[in-house]
């Protein structure tokens, strides 16, 4: 699943410039080919898993828990993370202010690094990427705007409109299943525990970082038919803003089945 847009205007700021600065930093680090070996985070260095001693001591450990966020392995890795930052970041910056947002983003990434150090099955494999910090944005978005519609490409091909709570919930569930699965292939180099740690950090920190006048669980904003980059009119819209508890449970079940069937169907057709 790839999130590509939302319709959730900012209310307190005109422009999320810190979010854009973070995106530009990720892009520049990739374009300039900064050597990741010196700035990647190695979970074993934290000693939380009986690891090895970091060559630079405590300062290097803490600094790499932040610097790894800006490193990306491939253009696709970078593009997916920049897209998620563009979708979720502006609303999180809007709810807490510019510089608080910058600190929030880094702390979520560091929380992801800590979780990876605690639970990783391969603690000596270096970790890079902003996915942990972005998962923190998603955790905050879940508590702030669970009903906001987001445009998702299921299996990277089928446009679907879903409440943000459904997308984030399914993403976290899939990460948890993958992290706990003993059958996960050894060549899958995805830091699932960093995702989960970042999500937990974002969900916890948003209650401290948000402005006093920003409520949790805000209602959805009405969106025009031509919204969502012009794809709104072509997307499958799952769910309604007004549903009973039973209808919501049924909707979540149907949404999960829909995502699974679409993914399996597309992969079968392309096999």
UniProtKB/TrEMBL annotation:
Signal peptide: none annotated. It comes from the Bacteria. GO terms for molecular function: serine-type endopeptidase activity. One of its GO terms (biological process) is proteolysis. The chain crosses the membrane at residues 17-36, 69-89, 101-119, 125-144, 151-178, 190-209, 249-270. The keyword Transmembrane helix applies. Coiled coil: none annotated. Gene3D superfamilies: Rhomboid-like. GO terms for cellular component: membrane. InterPro entries: Peptidase_S54_rhomboid_dom, Rhomboid-like_sf, Rhomboid_protease_S54. It is a multi-pass membrane protein. SUPFAM superfamilies: Rhomboid-like. The keyword Membrane applies. It is found in: Membrane. Keywords: Hydrolase, Membrane, Protease, Transmembrane, Transmembrane helix. Residues 64-210 form the Peptidase S54 rhomboid domain. Belongs to the peptidase S54 family. This is Rhomboid family intramembrane serine protease.
């Amino acid at each position: 699943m790839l999130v590509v847009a939302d319709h959730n205007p900012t209310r307190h700021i005109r422009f999320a410039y810190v979010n854009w600065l973070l995106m530009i930093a990720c892009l520049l680090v990739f374009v300039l080919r900064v050597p990741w070996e010196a700035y990647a985070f190695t979970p074993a260095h934290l000693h939380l898993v009986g690891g090895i001693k970091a060559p630079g001591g405590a300062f290097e450990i803490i600094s790499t828990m932040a610097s790894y966020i800006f490193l990306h392995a491939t253009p696709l890795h970078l593009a997916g993370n920049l897209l998620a930052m563009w979708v979720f970041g502006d609303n999180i910056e809007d709810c807490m202010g510019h510089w608080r947002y910058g600190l929030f983003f880094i702390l979520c990434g560091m929380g992801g690094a800590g979780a990876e150090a605690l639970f990783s099955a391969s603690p000596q494999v270096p970790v890079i990427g902003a996915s942990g910090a972005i998962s923190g944005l998603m955790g905050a978005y879940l508590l702030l705007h669970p009903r906001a519609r987001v445009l998702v490409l299921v299996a990277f091909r089928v446009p679907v409109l879903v409440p943000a709570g459904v997308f984030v919930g399914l993403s976290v569930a899939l990460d948890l299943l993958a992290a706990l699965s003993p059958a996960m292939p050894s060549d899958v180099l995805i830091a699932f525990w960093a995702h989960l740690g970042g999500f937990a950090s974002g969900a916890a920190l948003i209650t401290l970082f948000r402005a006093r006048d920003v409520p949790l669980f805000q209602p959805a904003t009405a969106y025009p038919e031509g919204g969502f980059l012009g794809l709104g009119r072509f997307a499958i819209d799952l769910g309604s803003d007004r549903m009973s508890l039973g209808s919501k449970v049924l909707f979540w079940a149907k949404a999960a089945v829909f995502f699974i069937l679409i993914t399996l169907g597309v992969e079968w057709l392309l096999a």
